[in-house]
Amino acid sequence: MENTSNKFIARQAIFDKNKNTYAYELLYRNSLDNFYSCETPEKATSQVILQNHIFGDLFNLCSQKKAFINFDEKSLLAKLPLMLDKNTVVLELLESINVTPDIIETVSALYNKGYTLALDDYNFLPKWQPLFPYISIIKVDIEDISFEQIVTLKNSQFVLDKNIKIVVERIETHQQFEKLSQIGIDYFQGYFFHKPEINAGHYVKPIKINLLQLFAEVHQPCLDFDSLAEIISQDVSLVSGVLRLVNLQTEKNRVEITSIKQAVTFLGADKIKQFIAIIAMSNLSSDCTYELLTESLVRGKMMEYISFSPAFIKIRDVAFITGVMSHIGAILNYPLEKIIMELPLAEEIKTALVKERGVLFEALEIVKHYECSETQHETGSIMAKHDISEDILLMNYQDSLKWCLATCP
Questions:
Q1: Given 201, 221, 247, which residue is the final one in a domain?
Q2: What residue ranges of the chain have pLDDT lower than 70?
Q3: Which of 209, 174, 152, 256 shows the shortest CA–CA distance to 407?
Q4: Could you tell me the residue range of the domain that residue 326 belongs to?
């Protein structure tokens, strides 16, 4: 099973010459201690994307400004930037990147797709020249680069020809800001303006066995969307993540999702592979078991079973996903209504989970019958209305538990 855990992210504002916020750089954190601590850059990058984009709200985190996100070599080659909206992010290429033919090809492809690319901690080394045609922003650290070098960079022909913007980091005094402003520096970042502020929240960790199965599945010559949907259906965090991805892909023309297979098929092979790569790199998986998460999957399976009853045949396509998502508020420690209304779920699912009415809601109430004895009287009347016997429900419940134990060891 998956478990919930804390997520941490720091953001530091980037200002223009009028001290208006232009963007925020997102900085990986693993606690409330405000400093970077991570084993590998690809883990930091993938966790920032996973926690704050796929399982979070990147746009609102950055107050509807652009988000600067660091990308290392592995993350670029895994095409993780393609998970992000080109209109809301700036891809910072870390100084540790080896400028290989593969990297040049990847950066060129991102540029042609409309992404904004920045060089982070530019150090004037010749290795960066092949990337200049694709760069829109160069960041320099005032503690590593002299003022004279910054002046030279600002007046460089390639900077002037391409109208490349310069961001100077680590500004700590008003004098530094004034001096840089006078030579026409475009953007400024540092403690003088804004110390990184930490945001904390919750996310759900995927379980390792599901990740291993997915990893094997996405590397098959031909993707089997039925198998992918089956694996994802066993993991509440993966279900939530896939639905969020659908939402992010359809900001203008929303689609209504009624099943996991529909969501997976809609995203397609490339997006699913990128999703799995991000989770694998982030190393967020866990083997911990929690009753609440088990209950969510049992609910989903029971909903599927009782949808074969004549009274509920019309909800068969949406039964499983409704049961699984019915616990997402408690799992994420966040209001259910806010989560559900933001996801691309079919209207009948939202009506059942948020407005608590309709046949789908009544089916869910019946399924919850075995979770709390206090509701037996109320559910009894609903069961009688739809001709669902205690014996059938007990058999469905036992079969659901067996399925959960068999598929989620």
A1: 201
A2: 1-10, 28-62, 192-213, 215-221, 250-254, 277-294, 331-334, 370-387, 405-409
A3: 209
A4: 291-407
The CA distance from 37 to 271, in Å, is 29
What CA–CA distance (Å, rounded) separates 81 from 301?
Answer: 35
- Residue 212 shares a structural domain with residue 341: no
In the block, which residue shows the tokens 């948020």? 354
Tell me how many domains the chain contains.
Answer: 3
Q: Which tens digits make up the pLDDT trace of 313-365? A: 888 888 888 887 887 777 666 688 877 887 778 899 999 999 999 989 988 98
Report pLDDT digits (tens) over 174-221.
Answer: 888 889 999 999 999 887 664 555 444 444 455 555 665 676 566 566
Could you tell me if 16 and 162 lie in one domain? Answer: yes
From the number of C-beta atoms within 10 Å of its C-beta (0-12, 13-18, 19+), residue 149 rates as: middle
Residues 107 and 182 in one domain: yes
Residues 133 and 276 in one domain: no
Residues 49, 152 share a domain: yes
Shared domain for 306 and 272, answered yes or no, is: no
Cβ contact 83:278 at 8 Å = yes
Is residue 191 located within the same domain as residue 209?
no
The token pair that represents 173 in the structure block: 């005094």
Last residue within a domain, chosen from 246, 264, 282? 282
Residues 31 and 159 in one domain: yes
